[in-house]
Amino acid sequence: MPVRGQGTPAFEAVGITKVYRMGEVEVHALRGVDLRIWDGEFVVILGPSGSGKSTLLNVLGGLDAPTAGVVRYREHDLATADDRRLTAYRREHVGFVFQFYNLVPSLTARENVALAAEIAPHPVPAEEALALVGLSPRMDHFPSQLSGGEQQRVAIARAIAKRPDVLLCDEPTGALDAATGRSVLEVLESVNREMGTTVAVITHNASIAEMADRVVRMADGLVARESWNERRRSPAEISW
Amino acid sequence: MTALHRMLWRDLARIRGQAIAIGLLVACSAATFVASVTTWRALERSQESLYDVYLFPHVFAEVRRAPEDLARRAAALPGVAEVETRVLSEAVVDVPGLGEPASAMLRSIPPGGEPRLDRLHVREGRIPAPGESSAVLVSEGFARANRLGPGDRISAVVNGRWKSLRVVGIGGSPEHLFAVRPGTLLNDDRHYGVIWMSREELASALDLTGAFNSIALRLAPGAPAAPAIEGLDRLLAPYGNRGAYGRDRQVSNRLVTDEISQMRALASTVPVVMLGVASFLLAIVLSRLVATQRMQIGTLKALGYGNARVGAHYMTFAALLVAGGVAAGVAGGYGLGRWLSVVYARYYRFPSMLYEAEPGVGILAAALALAVALASASGAVRRAARLAPAEAMRPEAPPTFRPSPLERLGLGRLLSARGRMVLRDLGRRPVRTALSAVGIAAAVACTMVAAFTRDASWMLVDHEFSRVAREDVAVYFTEALSEGALRELRALPGVVRGEGFRSVPAALRSGPRSHRTALLGLDPGASLHRVYGLKAGAVEVPPAGLVLSRRLADQMEVKVGDPVRLEVQEGRRPVADVRVARLVDDIVGVQAVMERSALDRIAGEGPRLSGAFLQTDAAVSGVLNDRLRRLPKVAGIVLTGATRAAVVKMLDDSLVWFTNLLTVFSVLIAIGVVYNGARLALGERERELATLRVIGFTRDEAWRITTGELAVQVLAGIPLGWLAGWGFVELTAWATGSELMRLPPLVTPANCAVAAGVVAASAALVALHTRRALARLDLVAVLKAKE
User: Fold this and answer.
1) Span A186-203, average pLDDT
2) According to the model, what pLDDT value does residue B787 have?
3) What whole-number distance in Å separates Cα of residue B245 and Cα of residue B226?
4) Which of B660, B736, B278, B738 is nearest to B446 (CA)?
5) Interatomic CA distance for residues B89 and B27, integer angstroms
6) Where are the beta strands (DSSP E) in B623-752?
7) What is the interface pTM, i.e. ipTM, of the complex?
8) Does the pLDDT at position A1 exceed 70?
């Protein structure tokens, strides 16, 4: 458990802005966000749609570059890195989990995980990663043979198979019912606790915030408020 | 414009790359169709019109010497409308500026001033006036090749005497559209031509005053040729008849007619292959479109658009996809046809080429392309119409995959996860995969046919001039001479070696089948001019019996050991039964060969020679040519090297555009197939590729998965294409093979490699292009979209 706001942060974002051009309209998705995330933290970023939380996650994950500002992951400057450097950064440090699982339909669960393991320097074996998310019995099934929750757990196994330093999750439970969503959150929590992986989850579901070390609330492209939970609740205790 | 129309245009704009690929294939298909059909019809029309206007005869015969009054009896034969007797002779010609000797057929112009049959068309100057001495009209090809014009002088040996001739005109006649020396099939305009001159002058020089040695008949409309041919044969029998024949055996007519039928074959094969590939591409593009627009279709239906309206929308889409290509192809086809017909008109010296941009042909091409487009779209359209609105608005169930057959054999462990993705995707759509491979195969086969046409033509030249006619000079005598003539030739300066030959006009009969030919007699051990088979190599002529071209034996339905009746058609016209001793798979013309002594025995005139093949010393060829020209009994001198060069030039000119066109087509097919495959793969795999990129795969690693699928299709298509190409080559060789020429079905490893290379290079270009598309992929947008 990291000490609140002390030491060198893993992520440091200072004054980042992001402006999209949608046809003739300029959309200011981020308007000067300052944020730090420390190693081993479980951060939940809350906010209504359009608040800029997904854009922030994409910038932190090296999928998008900010229009202005500084973003750093340890010694990596994410704001100015080119495509090659960002690819290497994602490959070595980041695991992603999306709302719509994005599994390769032609590969089985095990092979989807192996896909990521194959390019990582110190991977978790696919079987072990699947065991971690409780899917050992279903690892030779294709995505079309798995339920939504199972597919999302495969996506998490694929993300952690690279042994990433940070797991970025964009609405991981958005397409799932409460019970299934809870099981997915349990997996995320255990990854954070047992592997020490930094986890950032963005969601508009406020109850998920209770399982975080820290909650970052966003509104209109800015960090509106940050708060620390005295005690992290386990997903089983959460109701929504 | 309704909203639905706008959607149509925008969708078309969105897939413009694929639309252009399909449009190009359709355009090429329509252009080839329109060009070859209109050219073929223009050729046929021009040939017909030329034959009608210039009165091309229906029946022909050559005799040794027949009295003029026989013409009246010929006119009384069944069906005969018009008769004309002529005097003709082969002669050695001296053209100023042409170092080598040339030869020509001298033909008479009747005293009336113009032939009644096989009339002359004049390009330049005029027809010699009646009785005008030494004035001649020269065939156009010969005149152009030797830069002759009115006012120029040439000389010819007529019946052993040199005669100076003044060119007054340049022109031609239907019997000599294609001027070839009797007994040969390859034309050489520089060294062989036709010269028309006053009949009185020619007849007196040939000692044929009041007589003729050639006769032509024109039949009444609808009258059959056979009775006239039979009657003429009977009539001419006492006068050294060489055998009457119809248009079907008239060499110039056959060569032109053969060319027209080849053009007709081209009109039906190439466009079909290209349209087939285009239709396959169209079918997959549309099914993909319907799949991606599933939600839209559901929404349209929910709004109240009926199935018919939705179906019509996609049908219109298919029609628009081909419409541009058809319009461009038809317009281009008319242009190409016009150009081709000008090329042909020049080649055959047609006085006029009746090219018409017949609207019917374009309409037919458009209708065919449209019908094919609608038929190929019908599957996708049916699927769109069948979609129930509620179902359509739900996302499609995830595709079902299974391990590929290779993995079920236990080889899965050898494959990486990416390898498995490629194999399973291919396996999930076996029909599309197979058709893509077939499209690639079509491209490979197309290139192979192009290479075959080129190589086989060169092989034919090599076969004819390096294996068969190895002499430097062939000398033809005006009549059969004693063996002393050969000794004289051997004694000439520069003659290294000389071999005599006998050639006798004869009819071969077996049961109801017959064939007229010049029966060739060669000496045992003759090595300059040989009988040479494609597979058999040099064939020694046996002491007894006939050696026949396999093609001729098939035509006459005889095999080795069968008897053939031989009717000599000169001298005392002896008849003998001879056995077929050997068949030979030669490729130019058909021939019947015997040992000369055996032929001499049958002819019964003692040892005689019709000419000689000479090997000469190139250093003194000028002196030798000069001496040969001056020999009184020489009717023709053929220089093998010069003829070979002329044939090579002719092939060069005529083959280049054809092989280039076929190669361009195959590149277009390959690019079209691979490009569409790549676009589809990118479209369908967008999400997967974006996922891979997010996980940390580099652009190149992700790109290799897309190209992996294409590579498998190309790699499967290439051997399939080799097989198909081999089949096409065999088919083309068989279909174009005639009595005149048979291209050997040549498939060389080099050609296979080049065909594969051309297609692989086209595929590689497209693959590189997809890399750029991959770079533009918006990872976040793709991944956040609902499946």
Assistant:
1) 92
2) 47
3) 9
4) B660
5) 51
6) 634-639
7) 0.78
8) no
B398 closest CB neighbour out of A84, A91, A144: A144
Structural contact between residues B61 and B236, judged by C-beta atoms closer than 8 angstroms: yes
Question: Looking at residue A68, what is its pLDDT?
Answer: 95
Confirm or reject contact between B2 and chain A (CB < 8 A).
Answer: no
- Strand ranges inside B596-646, DSSP E: 609-616, 634-639
- How confident is residue A125, by pLDDT bands cut at 50, 70 and 90? very high
Closest-CA residue to B250 (of B286, B216, B299)? B216
Confidence band of B379 (pLDDT split at 50, 70, 90): confident
pLDDT digits 0-9 by tens, B382-419? 888 887 777 776 666 667 777 777 777 777 777 777 78
Rounded to an integer, what distance in angstroms lies between the CA atom of residue B731 and that of residue B740? 17
Please give the structure tokens belonging to residue B646: 């002329």
Span B598-602, mean pLDDT? 93
Query: CA end-to-end span of chain B, whole Å?
Result: 32
Global pTM reads 0.75
Write the pLDDT tens digit of every residue in B278-333.
888 888 888 878 877 877 787 777 777 778 888 888 899 889 988 999 999 999 99
Q: Which residues contact A172 (CB under 8 A, 6 or more apart)?
A: A97, A98, A99, A152, A156, A184, A185, A188, A201, A203
Boundaries of every domain in chain B: 54-255, 429-470+641-787, 495-616
- Contact of B396 with B290, CB cutoff 8 Å: no
Task: Give per-residue pLDDT as tens, B144-170.
Answer: 989 999 999 999 988 778 889 999 999
E strand or H helix that includes residue B116: none
Rg of chain A over Cα atoms, rounded to whole angstroms, equals 17
Query: What does the alpha-carbon distance between residue B289 and residue B383 come to, in Å, rounded to a whole number?
Result: 11
A142 with B400: Cβ contact below 8 A: yes
Among partner residues B401, B692, B697, which is closest to A105 by beta-carbon distance?
A: B401
Distance CA A146, CA A101 (A): 11
**Tokens representing residue A107 in the block:** 């590969």
Query: Average of pLDDT values for B210-233?
Result: 94
Q: Which fold has domain B495-616?
A: Barwin-like endoglucanases (2.40.40)
Q: Distance (Å, rounded) from C-alpha B109 to C-alpha B200?
A: 9
Could you tell me if B416 lies within 8 Å of chain A, comparing CB atoms? Answer: yes
* Rama region for B304: left / alpha / beta (φ>0; ψ in -120 to 50; rest): left
Tell me the percentage of chain B whose pLDDT exceeds 70. Answer: 97
Bridge pairing between strands B121-125 and B161-172: antiparallel
Mean pLDDT on B526-539: 91
- Residue among B695, B699, B771, B778 with most chain A CBs within 10 A, to mutate: B695
Query: What whole-number distance in Å separates Cα of residue B640 and Cα of residue B458?
Result: 16
A30: phi then psi, degrees, rounded to nearest 5: -125, 135
Give me the long-range contacts of B270-273 (CB less than 8 A, separation at least 24): B270/B29, B270/B32, B270/B36, B270/B446, B270/B662, B270/B665, B271/B29, B271/B30, B271/B32, B271/B33, B271/B36, B271/B365, B272/B29, B273/B442, B273/B446, B273/B669
Q: Give the integer Cα–Cα distance in Å for B460 and B455.
A: 8
CATH class of A38-64+82-237: alpha beta
User: Using an 8 Å Cβ cutoff, are B102 and B636 in contact?
Assistant: no
| b/e per residue A140-163 (b: at least 16 CB within 10 A) | ebbbeebebbbbbbbbbbbbbbbb
CA gap A20, A26 in Å, rounded: 6
B718 to chain A nearest CA, in Å? 26
